[in-house]
Every structure is written in C-alpha cells, then in structure tokens.
Amino acid sequence: MTRERTILLKKLEKLNQYEQNVLEEIQEERNALKKRLKDLDYIEGRHFVPSHVTINRTSHKKMEAYYEATQLLKNNPEKVFLAKEITAHVEQETGYKISQFAYFYKKLQEIDPNIMRIRRGCYGYKSEKSTW
C-alpha cells in the first residue's frame, strides 16, 4: 500500500509542477499581449512623433513602421544597420513594405534627430554608447 501511495504522491507533485508551469506561461503571454496593446495605443496616439513633424493621412501600418524602425535603432545605439536590415525588420514586424527608403529615413530623422546616416546605406542612433 505504501508503494502505491508514494507513486500517487509523486504524480500529484508532477501535476502541481505542471500546473505551475502552465500558469507562468499564461501570465507571460498575457503580459506580452498587454505590452503590445499598450504599444499600439501609443502608436495610434502618435505620441512618439514630435508636434513639429507633419504626417498627413498616414496609415496605421505606416505609423507602426516608423515606430518599429525608431525602436530598432534606439535599442541598439552601438550597432550600425544597413537600409536592407531596417527594411526587413520593419516588414517582418509590421507587414509594411517600404518603397523608398530615402523618404522613410527623412521622416525618421524628423521624428528623432538622433537617427543618423553614417555612410551610404548605413544608419545608426547617436548616443553616448555609439562607437561610430
């Protein structure tokens, strides 16, 4: 009888551990969804665009693209990105295809003047961490 009892106790312990892991995963996913909703609200409110920058009749996807590009550059100030890398990242994250990167970069620089063109086709974020 004690052998069966120990087996049942071990199974119960495993179930409790499994339940705890599932609850943690659900909480992580809930937090990720809340963060994404907060980001979308921020983008829709255009709070990241300074008031002096005019963006007329801009679609939501385009605003999301500007936001993703500025976040990519801001979060990696020590890295230099190729225009292709920025374009690929924006398209992957938002689904927005950048047709003319020069125009897109011009608007990015109006939104955040710390976004710099380092040399032809290479862009970075100017900060204390910048090594270029």
From TrEMBL:
<dbReference type="Pfam" id="PF26513">
    <property type="entry name" value="Rok_N"/>
</dbReference>
<protein>
    <recommendedName>
        <fullName>Transcriptional regulator</fullName>
    </recommendedName>
</protein>
<feature type="domain" description="Repressor Rok winged helix">
    <location>
        <begin position="68"/>
        <end position="123"/>
    </location>
</feature>
<dbReference type="Pfam" id="PF23159">
    <property type="entry name" value="WHD_Rok"/>
</dbReference>
<dbReference type="InterPro" id="IPR058971">
    <property type="entry name" value="Rok_N_oligomerisation"/>
</dbReference>
<dbReference type="InterPro" id="IPR056984">
    <property type="entry name" value="WH_Rok"/>
</dbReference>
<feature type="domain" description="Rok N-terminal oligomerisation">
    <location>
        <begin position="1"/>
        <end position="41"/>
    </location>
</feature>
